[in-house]
Amino acid sequence: MARHASFLIRRWRQQGVAAVEFALISLFFFTLLLGIVELGRVLYVWNTVQEVTRHAAREAVVRNFSSEVAAVRREALFRPGTGSGSVVLPAAGEISNAEVRISFLDATLATVSPLPSDPADNLSACADASRSTSCIRFVRAEVCDATACQGVFYRPLVGFLLGVGGINFRVRIPVSPVLMPAESLGFAPA
Hints:
By secondary structure, the chain is α+β, with helices and mostly antiparallel strands. The protein contains 5 helices and 7 strands, in the order αααβββαββαββ. The strands form 3 sheets. A 3-stranded antiparallel β-sheet has the order 3-4-7. Helix 2 packs antiparallel against helix 3 (69-76). The protein is rod-shaped. The N and C termini lie far apart (106 Å).
């Protein structure tokens, strides 16, 4: 009988040990799991910014620069249409069409000023040596903030957890500019 009682006492003392062990291990496990998810998302956003700039530059060199820039910005985020509203990249809310910057450059890579009125006028400007600063030779696309074009800040999914811990998690995604030679720029011969 004493043997049975000592067994029950030992068993009673062990109750809850599994819960305490799980609590200690799960803290480490879930931190590691969320860290892996965040790292994967950072890499996704980083890679997607490069794809967005490539797609924006590709669309800009073949579409009408005088009337379709807003549509090119939407298309760069894989959201076709001509609406003027703000759209965001799927699974990357820090990137919207407002952050897609498209620049039209001359042969010296300076910003074209003044812009030609339409694609046909661009061809005239490129043929006229006196209007070389109005000739679009290159298109540059980049994803950057509205003020200084330094890239957008990554917003973590678990930001609320970092805020509770007092950690200011700010990772700037690089601008990743893409420069392409101008093609038709929307010119369609009559």
